[in-house]
Design brief:
It contains two helices and no strands. With 85 residues, the chain is an all-alpha fold. The chain has a domain of 26 residues. The radius of gyration is 33 Å and the shape is rod-shaped. It starts with a helix and ends in a 14-residue tail after the last helix.
C-alpha cells in the first residue's frame, strides 16, 4: 500500500511538472504572438496616419501620370462673388 502511494504521488508530481512546463511554453508563444500582432497593428496605424485621407497609393502607371500632367496645364480662373443670405 505504501509503495502504491509513493508511486502515485511521484507520478502526480511528474505530471504536474510536465503540465506546468507545457503551459509556460504555450503561454510564452501566445504572448509573443500577441505582441507581434500589436506591433503590426501599431505599424499599420502609423502608416495609415501618414497617408492623406487614409488613401495610400503605392504605384501610379506612367501613362496615367503623363495624362494627368497634360490635363492640369494652367486652367481657367472663374471670378465669383460671395453671396450672403
Amino acid at each position: 500500500m505504501l509503495k502504491f502511494l509513493i508511486i502515485f504521488l511521484g507520478v502526480g508530481w511528474l505530471l504536474g511538472q510536465l503540465i506546468r512546463y507545457f503551459l509556460r511554453t504555450k503561454l510564452a508563444k501566445f504572448a509573443q504572438h500577441v505582441n507581434e500582432m500589436a506591433k503590426e497593428e501599431q505599424r499599420s496605424k502609423q502608416h495609415a496616419s501618414r497617408s492623406k485621407d487614409g488613401i495610400n497609393v503605392d504605384f501610379i502607371p506612367k501613362e496615367h501620370q503623363q495624362k494627368r500632367q497634360k490635363d492640369i496645364e494652367g486652367g481657367e480662373y472663374v471670378d465669383y462673388e460671395e453671396v450672403k443670405e
